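Cross-posting from the chemistry board since nobody answered there.

I work mostly on the small-molecule side, so proteins are not my area. We synthesized 2-acetamido-2-deoxy-beta-D-glucopyranose and want a rough idea of how it might sit in this target. Sequence and SMILES are below. Is it possible to get a predicted 3D structure of the two together?
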Amino acid sequence: MKAVLIVLVIAGCALALSYEDVLEAEWQAFKKEHDKSYQDASEEQLRRRIFKDNKEMIDKHNARYAAGEETWEMGVNEFTDMLLEEFRAQMLGGLNKTDDPTEIHLVYKPSPNFRIPSSVDWRKKGAVTKVKNQGHCGSCWTFAAAGTLEGQHFLKTGNLIDLSEENILDCASQWPYPNQGCNGGWASSALDYIKNNGGVDTEASYPYYAYQGNCHFDRRRVGATVKKVVRVAKGDENALAAAVAEYGPIAVSIEATHLVHYRRGVLNKRCQNVIDHDLVVVGYGHDVRGGDYWLLKNSWGKERGENGYVRMARNRGNLCFIASQAVFPLV
Ligand SMILES: *[C@@H]1O[C@H](CO)[C@@H](O)[C@H](O)[C@H]1NC(C)=O
C-alpha cells in the first residue's frame, strides 16, 4: 500500500491525484494507525463519512493556520471518526458541570499590590507528575483534583507523589457527593471528599482502571491530605494567574469542544454554553504568535496536543470558562 502511494505521489504531477484518492489513502492509514475495526460495512461507511467531514474541517482550519490566520493547529487522531456527541459521551461523561454544587466559602483574591510574574511553569520546579490517561471514562475531575493536590503537596513537603484517581472515582461518586463516576463530576467535590476522608491513597497502592468499582480506600496508604478547599474568584483571570503564581498548579473546568482535534499552538476559539472538562493549570505565559496563554495539563495521554498539554488563550474574556471554576487545596 505504501509503495503504491509513493508511486502515485511521484507521478502526481502527471496523474493529478483526486481528493477522493487522497481521502481513501488517509482513511486506510487512519484505520491502521488507530487499530479501528467496525461491525459491518454499513458502520464502516458511516465512520468514513464522519471522518471525511472532520478531515475537511481540519484541513480548512490548518490551511488558515498555515496562512497565519489561526494561532493553533488541528490534527487527525483516534476521535476523527466520531461525532462530537459520541466523543462527549465517551471522554467527558456528558455531565453539564456549569453549576458547581460544592459549597466553598474560602475565596482567593490576590492582594491589590501583588505583582503577577510574566510567566510561570511549575513543571520546571518539579511540581507536576507525568501526563496520565483517563481512558474511555469521564473521570477528568479526579485527575484535575489529584493534579492540583500533587502540586500543593510537593510545594509543602518536597515530595512529588502520584495520587490515586481511582480512589476518588470509587469513593467520591456516592452519597453525599454529587459526582457520577465515569459520567462526570467536580474537582471541587473530589477535593472536598479528600478533606473529609482524611486523605487520598497513592496511585501505586490504588491504581487506575478506568471504571468505577467498590471503594477500598486504605488509611495506611494515604499519599496526601487536604486541610481546606479554596475557590479562585469566579471568572477572574487575573486572580487565577496570581493564584497559579502564588500557590502552584490549580484545577480548572472548561468546555472541551475545541480540544478534540487540538494538536499544537495557542487554542483561541469561542465556546458555546457548557462546562464539561477539567484540567490542571500548571502555568501561563506569552507566545509571540498566539499571545497570552494558559498552560494546561490534560489527562488524555501524552500523545495528545503538546505532549499531553494544551495552551489556551488567556485574557480573552474568560475563554471557554477557564476561570469560572478554579479550585485548589490547602495542605
Ligand atoms: C449547561 O448548564 C447551564 C446552566 O444551567 C445552561 O445555561 C446551559 O444551557 C447548559 N448547556 C447545555 C449544552 O445544556
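Reply from a structural biologist on the board:
Welcome over. Reading the output above for you: The mean pLDDT is 94. The first helix runs from residue 2 to 10. Happy to explain the C-alpha cell format if needed.
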